[in-house]
Structure formats: C-alpha cells, structure tokens
C-alpha cells in the first residue's frame, strides 16, 4: 500500500479542520500528499473520481495532485482533520515523492482507538494553548503514518488469505467468464487441492459460491434498475437466460418477476433503525435491524420488540458483518457503507444502498421498493399535516421572528447545526420556518464549528442543545465549560429560560416516521409549554 524508505523524512506542513477545508474547497486538488482523518461521524467523498465512504477512525492517505470532492452534501455530520505533509530524502536533503502503491492514488486504513485517542488529546491540548507547535505536528503525523500498513507479498499469505483472494476475484469479475483453474492459479494451488480447501472452509464449491454471488447481484439489479431479467442475466455473468431463471428460482424460491412483486415477504435486515421504522410505518415488519444501544430511543426499542424484530446490537462505528450473517437475511438495506463493509455483506445477501437522504424521498423510495406506494403517500401526508398544525400553533403564540439555534456540544468544542444539514434542522428552519441567527446562515448543509464568541454574537432567542453521545468519548466537560462561560450567562435564551436539552439518538439519528412526531412534541413542549 505504502512506499516509505528509511532514508526519507516526513515534514508536516499544516493540520486543519477537515470540514472547513472541504466546505471552502468543493473541488480540492491537493498541492501536497495529505492524510484525511475522521474523528467523528461519517462522510462520503469522491477521491480521484471514485466514491469512498469514510467513518469514525478512518485515515486516508492521498497522493499529491489527487482531486477530492464531497459527494454527500446533505448529511455533513462529521469532523476530522486534514493533514498535509511533504517528504525529504535525508541523504541528499531534497524533496521526494511519497507513493501510495494503489491505482486509485489513495489508501484507506482503520486505525486503532488508542491511536485515535492520542491524536485527539494532542490536538485538544494544542487548541487550548491556541497554538500547534512543530513538535506536536510531527508527533501527530508520525503517530498516524506508522499505522499505515505495507502490502505483503503473495508468498506470505496463509491458506485462508489465498482462498480469500479468489473470493475477491469472483466478486470483482462475477460478470465475466470464470473457471476453477483460473481461481486455483490465483490461490497458487492445483485445481483439485483448491476445490477441497475451498469446500472445507466455505461449505460449498467455488462454482456454487460464484453462482450464488451472481444471483445476489441480479436481485439488486432487478430491484434498483427496472431492467428486464434477460438483460440482468447477461450483466451478471449468465449467457443463457433460461439457465439464469432456473438458478434464480433455485436460490430465491421464486422467478425474477414474482420476486420483485413480493419483496416485502422476504427477510429484510435494515442497517439503520430509522429505515426499519419507516418499513413498520409502511406495514412491513423487518426481519432484523442493527442498533447502537446508546443511540436507540426507548420508544424505538419497545416498538421493535413488540413486532418481533431481531435487534443486532453493535458498537458505534464498528461494523460486524458476521452478526448480520447469523440471522440469514434475504436482503440488506443501508444508507451508506464503506467499500470494505459493502463487499463483505454482498457475500451474505443482496445489498441495497445509497438511499435518498431526505425523509420524504426515503419514504417514497422504500414504498416503491416494498410495493407499498399508497401507504407511503399516506405517511407523508400525515407528517405534513402534523407539521402544518404545529407551525400554526407556533405562529399564533410567538410574535415576531425569534431566532432558533441547534447547538451541538462535543468533546472538542461546539458546532451549530446548519439549517439544511439534517432532517431535524430542516424541520426546525425550513418546515416550521423558525429562523436561524443571521451570522449562521452559511454552510447550511453542515455541522459547523462554533466558538463561544460566535455564539454570543448570534444570541439566539431559543436554544436547543445536544450533548453529543459517543461510545468513545464524553462531552460532559465541554458542556460544563459552556455553562460556566461568561458568554453563556448573557445569552437571551439563557436569561429567558429558553434553553432545551435534546437527545442525539432521537434528534440526529431517528427523525423518521415515528421519531419525527416525538421531536415535534418536544418542540411544542419547549416553545409553547403545551
């Protein structure tokens, strides 16, 4: 992956806020080799024309000259650091190139929590001192660079790793002709020995694995493209449409057309509790749903248990595909996935991803996918009527145009939530028409850094405060510092007792069919006292 000679020295040029850099430069061509580190949330970027989903703990090393763009500009709920550096040859004392040995020009690595924690602590200390020293910059850079792994030579692979390489080949070339001899050569074994070892490890022959994988991809295409089954057959490696239909029915239990019209009857696993909530609203009971205990509201947990939905508890930003495989889903639905996770899940079941970001579009999409279009329209109409009712109440009870701010408290400081950055912000500022302070009407699609001085200048009349919930750190001290600051005490919202504390799990993660109703109840209670 990486090419670093011991006679080379890395010099850190700068460390900047990743969100600010990407917002200021929608299309950024790198002047220097850089590291992109995500310390909270998740984001989808275009890296040299290839889409890459980044989550908490990911670091991406990107070569000089590469082009980076934000692709998901609707939910920009992430934070991190942009670290640029240059390389020197210490023998000649001249600049030299840092090479990422991948065709894409970048490499992605998940770093240990201990390294991420050390990096955050170092940056927090520097922020407190209002200065990032050269020594600290070098410490942070080398602390990350040492975690980036070099690729191993094929002869160093274990038997399991050699067989896994053939899985990758099948997954990448499934639409092409593949035979056992070709796969055995990739593994470095004879065809007979390869087949025996594959069968022992995976419980099926290589060709059975390949056919099943092709059927999974065919299911995805049928559900998302609307293409004819004979065309889907060709695109997934089947030259004979009749053979494709036989294999499809053998694996799925129904012919392609019947499958498309009865998808709600299959075992669907949602990787988002908010999406599973929509399915229930549409009258479709999920087979399973992944949940994060600290971010799943009680009403939602009770609802899933009431309907007999299998709850798959996972740590925040740590995905465990084996847990999904254990419930044997027929279909997996998720908003965004890293490429690595997506490939792991595509070996388990068909995977539908890259769903629409806003709630109404998502309800429409899932209604169409699950053949519940009428129910989807009814859900949207009901939510719109509830919004209109609340807006009328607010307009009749609150005179003028008092400003409303949604403030997030994090371990490292504060962020104001842009007026179009998430479904709850859209509810507050767009649907209910509650204006955000004038000074914060920029970068409306992102969660933006907010200093105490900026907060004082904005001086909102109403303040909704979210203490960020994370499994890996606490925002308690930041909240104490906020409430103890001189700026806090003079805010209109504070002096008039108009500060309301809200929950990350509901307001950020679950502004969905039922969650949105809960949020509206809380807004009404906060602003109207009813």
Work out the strand percent. Answer: 15-25%
Helix content: 40-55%
Estimate the global geometry from the Cα principal axes. Answer: flat
Summed over residues and divided by their number, the pLDDT gives a mean of 91
Oligomer: single chain
The largest pleated sheet is described as: 9 strands, antiparallel
Cα gyration radius (Å): 26 Å
Please, how many helices? Answer: 23
Query: What are the segments in which pLDDT stays under 50 over at least 5 consecutive residues?
Result: none
The N- to C-terminal Cα distance equals 59 Å
What would you call the structural class? alpha/beta
Walk me through the structure.
- By secondary structure, the protein is of the alpha/beta class.
- The protein is built from 23 helices and 21 strands.
- The strands form four sheets. Strands 2, 3, 4, 5, 6, 7, 8, 9 and 11 form a nine-stranded antiparallel beta sheet that branches. A five-stranded parallel beta sheet has the order 14-13-12-15-16.
- Helix 4 crosses helix 5 and helix 15 (359-369) runs antiparallel to helix 16.
- The chain starts with a strand and ends with a helix.
- The model has no long low-confidence stretch (mean pLDDT 91).
- Residues 366-400 form a coiled coil.
SSE order and pairing:
Layout lengths: L1 E2 L4 E10 H7 L2 E3 L3 E15 L2 E6 L2 E5 L4 E4 L7 E12 L4 E3 L2 E2 L5 E5 L2 H16 L5 H12 L13 H15 L6 H8 L3 H12 L3 H19 L4 H7 L5 H12 L3 H6 L6 E3 L2 H9 L6 E4 L6 H9 L3 E4 L7 H6 L4 E3 L5 H8 L4 E2 L6 H11 L3 H25 L6 E7 L2 E5 L5 H9 L15 E3 L2 H7 L3 E6 L8 H8 L2 H4 L2 H4 L3 E4 L1 H4 L7 H14 L2
Parallel strand pairs: 12-13, 12-15, 13-14, 15-16, 17-20, 20-21
Antiparallel strand pairs: 1-10, 2-8, 3-7, 4-5, 4-6, 4-7, 4-8, 6-11, 8-9, 17-18, 18-19
Helix pairs in contact: 2-3, 4-5, 5-6, 15-16, 16-23
């Amino acid at each position: 992956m990486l090419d670093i000679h011991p006679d080379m020295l890395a010099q850190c040029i700068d460390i900047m806020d990743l969100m600010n850099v990407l917002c200021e430069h929608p299309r950024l061509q790198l002047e220097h080799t850089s590291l992109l580190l995500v310390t909270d949330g998740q984001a989808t970027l275009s890296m040299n024309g290839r889409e890459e989903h980044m989550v908490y703990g990911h670091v991406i090393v990107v070569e000089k000259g590469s082009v980076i763009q934000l692709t998901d500009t609707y939910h920009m709920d992430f934070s991190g650091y942009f670290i640029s550096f240059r390389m020197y040859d210490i023998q000649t004392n001249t600049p030299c190139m840092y090479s990422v040995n991948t065709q894409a020009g970048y490499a992605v690595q998940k770093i240990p929590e201990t390294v991420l924690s050390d990096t955050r602590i170092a940056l927090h200390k520097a922020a407190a001192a209002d200065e990032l020293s050269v020594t600290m910059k070098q410490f942070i850079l080398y602390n990350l660079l040492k975690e980036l792994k070099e690729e191993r030579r094929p002869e160093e692979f274990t038997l399991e790793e050699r067989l896994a390489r053939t899985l990758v080949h099948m997954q990448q070339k499934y639409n092409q002709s593949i035979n056992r001899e070709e796969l055995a050569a990739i593994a470095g074994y004879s065809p007979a020995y390869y087949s025996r070892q594959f069968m022992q490890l995976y419980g099926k022959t290589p060709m059975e694995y390949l056919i099943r994988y092709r059927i999974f991809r065919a299911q995805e295409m049928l559900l998302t493209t609307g293409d004819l089954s004979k065309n889907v057959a060709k695109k997934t490696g089947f030259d004979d449409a009749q053979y494709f239909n036989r294999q499809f029915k053998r694996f799925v239990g129904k012919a392609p057309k019947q499958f498309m019209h009865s998808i709600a009857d299959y075992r669907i696993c949602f990787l988002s509790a908010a999406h599973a909530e929509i399915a229930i609203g549409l009258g479709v009971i999920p087979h399973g749903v992944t949940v994060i205990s600290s971010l799943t509201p009680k009403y939602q947990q009770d609802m899933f248990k009431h309907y007999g939905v299998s709850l798959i508890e996972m740590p925040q930003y740590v995905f465990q595909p084996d847990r999904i495989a254990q419930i044997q889903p027929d279909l997996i639905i998720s908003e965004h996935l890293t490429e690595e996770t997506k490939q792991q899940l595509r070996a388990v079941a068909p995977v539908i991803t890259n769903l629409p970001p806003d709630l109404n579009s998502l309800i429409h999409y899932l209604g169409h996918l699950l053949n519940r279009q009428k129910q989807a329209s009814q859900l949207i109409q009901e939510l719109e009527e509830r919004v209109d009712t609340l807006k009328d109440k607010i307009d009749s009870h609150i005179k003028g145009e008092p400003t409303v701010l949604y403030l997030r408290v994090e371990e490292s400081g504060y962020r104001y939530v842009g007026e179009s950055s998430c479904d709850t912000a859209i509810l507050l500022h767009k649907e209910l028409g509650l204006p955000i302070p004038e000074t914060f009407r920029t970068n409306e699609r992102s969660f933006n850094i907010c200093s105490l001085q900026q907060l004082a200048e904005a001086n909102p009349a109403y303040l909704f405060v979210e203490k960020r919930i994370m499994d890996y750190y606490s925002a308690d001290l930041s909240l104490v510092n906020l409430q103890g600051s001189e700026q806090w005490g003079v805010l209109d919202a504070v002096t008039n007792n108009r500060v309301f504390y809200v929950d990350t799990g509901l307001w950020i993660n679950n502004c969905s069919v039922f969650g949105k109703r809960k949020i509206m109840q809380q807004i009404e209670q906060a602003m109207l006292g009813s």
